[in-house]
Design goal:
Blueprint (H helix, E strand, L loop, with lengths): L3 H7 L1 E13 L7 E11 L4 E11 L4 E11 L2 H11 L5 H21 L10 E5 L5 E5 L8 E2 L3 H13 L2
Antiparallel strand pairs: 1-2, 2-3, 3-4, 5-6, 6-7
Helix pairs in contact: 3-4
This protein binds zinc ion (ZN).
Length: 164
């Protein structure tokens, strides 16, 4: 349950997985642990061998890293790990996915009309009929709404799914 994206969050990239061990907790909460030993680079370009225990909390839906050990390694050691355990977890895919998500967020922001009552920005909200409409960010104080065209609804649906 750990991906390149999680390592990017930790500040590492070019991740090579050297060891991987997965087990489920028997506590009844069905939490999963993934024990990783990886070789990776940090933002400054330094190379490390890092031991991480990823705790996936089923109830919370979070994947929490606990870095257990970290030692500096040389380019030669990194190259040897890469040759033996490669390929590198694909950073490019995750960077591209992240960029799409942030572009979608910016486009969603740009679509927001002003509230007809108080002029504040409006938010796309799902109505009872599962159709989007515009609602004021000041709700429930401000009850301003606007209807949304079918085209905009479709666009928002697509942008919302690109965000995740
Ligand atoms: Zn308003």
């Amino acid at each position: 349950m750990s991906s390149a994206a999680h390592y990017l969050d930790l500040g590492y990239h070019d991740v090579v997985i050297i060891e991987k061990e997965w087990h489920e907790e028997s506590s009844g909460y069905q939490n999963e642990h993934t024990h990783h030993v990886v070789a990776c680079r940090d933002r400054s370009g330094a190379i490390w061998k890092v031991t991480v225990n990823w705790a996936f909390k089923t109830m919370k839906g979070t994947n929490e890293p606990h870095v257990e050990a970290r030692v500096a390694i040389s380019e030669a050691e990194y190259a040897a790990f890469l040759a033996k355990h490669g390929p590198v977890l694909d950073n490019a895919t995750f960077h591209a996915k992240r960029k799409r998500a942030s572009d979608a967020k910016a486009q969603l922001e740009a679509l927001k009309p002003p509230c007809p009552e108080c002029n504040r920005p409006m938010q796309a909200r799902l109505g009872r009929g599962k159709e989007y409409f515009w609602g004021c960010i000041g709700f429930p104080k401000c009850k301003g709404t606007r209807t949304m065209t079918a085209t905009t609804r479709k666009r928002i649906g697509a942008l919302e799914s690109a965000r995740h």
